[in-house]
């Protein structure tokens, strides 16, 4: 194969890889924008419009996301469940406004978690989550069982907003550890004991801080970087080979001229 043909072939392969990723990014951006629009409409109580956007999201998600295998099975499961809850929120006129917004916000954060490659939006919930948790901890340290239960309910409501996003972004074992501690303090709240609960809450607080403190690393598909690296290397080698052939040809031509002279 001629050098130019080699370069052209690998240029086409690289461009094709970039095109595939660009198409995928375009779909994710579109889905993310739909989720955001649904949330904004919900906040202004424009529920019919929010419902229409969520239904369009489902169609687009099914056509592009599911069909083309853009998402993992866990992502499909989590986002589908979160979307179902958001749709239920905007169609149930008897639902409390705060609860409705909470469910749609949870869906919006989950959609962002799938599309974000660096700083997901759920990270911005750190202040709210940790503030609510601090109230739980304060009530426990004061031995106020009634305040403890009220604060714990508020914390759990806030935590469930980011829980679908955590299922998408966190390793399964890390999330399981966190959820098991939260389930424990919720299930056995009637056995409230100031000192014992202080130890549980201290451990839980450290886990919560960890999930917010580690920024996301670049999660670009390693296969893309492999293609880029290999293509670059081959192009460099090809150009080097072409230069060497040209140099060798010029030397031979010069020798022939010297012999004739």
Observed structural traits:
9 helices, mainly alpha, 261 residues, 83% helix, Four Helix Bundle (Hemerythrin (Met), subunit A)
Give an overview of the whole structure.
There is one protein chain. The protein is mainly alpha-helical. It has 3 domains: about 20-115; about 120-215, Up-down Bundle (Four Helix Bundle (Hemerythrin (Met), subunit A)); about 230-260. Helix content is about 85%, strand content about 0%. The chain has 9 helices and no strands. It has helices at about 5-45, 45-65, 75-90, 95-115, 125-140, 145-170, 170-185, 195-215, 220-260. Helix 4 (about 95-115) runs parallel beside helix 6 (about 145-170).
Secondary structure elements and their pairing?
Layout: H1 3-43, H2 47-66, H3 73-91, H4 97-115, H5 126-142, H6 145-169, H7 172-187, H8 194-213, H9 222-260
Helix pairs in contact: 1-2, 1-4, 1-9, 2-3, 3-4, 3-6, 4-6, 5-6, 5-8, 6-7, 7-8
User: Please, what is the average pLDDT?
Assistant: 80
Form type: flat
Low-confidence stretches: 4-23, 215-228
Specify Rg, calculated over alpha carbons: 28 Å
Strand content: under 5%
Helical proportion? over 70%
The structural class is mainly alpha
Count of structural domains: 3
Distance between the termini: 36 Å
* Element-level helix/strand string: HHHHHHHHH
Total count of helical runs of at least 4 residues: 9
* Main pleated-sheet profile: none
């Amino acid at each position: 194969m001629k050098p130019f043909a080699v370069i052209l072939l690998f240029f086409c392969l690289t461009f094709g890889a970039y095109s595939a990723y660009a198409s995928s990014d375009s779909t994710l951006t579109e889905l993310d924008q739909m989720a955001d629009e649904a949330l904004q409409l919900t906040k202004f109580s424009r529920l019919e419009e929010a419902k229409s956007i969520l239904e369009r999201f489902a169609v687009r998600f099914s056509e592009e996301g599911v069909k083309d295998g853009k998402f993992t099975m866990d992502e499909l499961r989590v986002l589908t469940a979160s979307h179902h809850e958001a749709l239920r929120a905007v169609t149930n006129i008897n639902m409390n406004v705060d609860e409705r917004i909470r469910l749609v916000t949870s869906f919006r954060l989950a959609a962002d978690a799938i599309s974000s490659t660096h700083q997901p939006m759920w990270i911005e919930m750190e202040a709210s989550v940790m503030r609510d948790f601090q109230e739980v901890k304060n009530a426990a340290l004061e031995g106020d069982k009634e305040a403890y239960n009220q604060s714990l309910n508020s914390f759990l409501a806030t935590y469930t907003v980011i829980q679908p996003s955590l299922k998408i972004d966190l390793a399964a074992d890390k999330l399981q550890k966190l959820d098991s501690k939260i389930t424990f303090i919720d299930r056995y709240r009637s056995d409230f004991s100031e000192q014992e609960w202080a130890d549980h809450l201290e451990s839980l607080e450290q886990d919560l801080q960890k999930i917010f403190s580690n920024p996301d690393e670049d999660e670009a598909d390693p296969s893309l970087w492999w293609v880029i690296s290999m293509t670059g290397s081959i192009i460099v080698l090809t150009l080097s080979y072409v230069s060497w052939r040209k140099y060798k040809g010029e030397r031979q031509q010069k020798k022939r001229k010297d012999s004739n002279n």
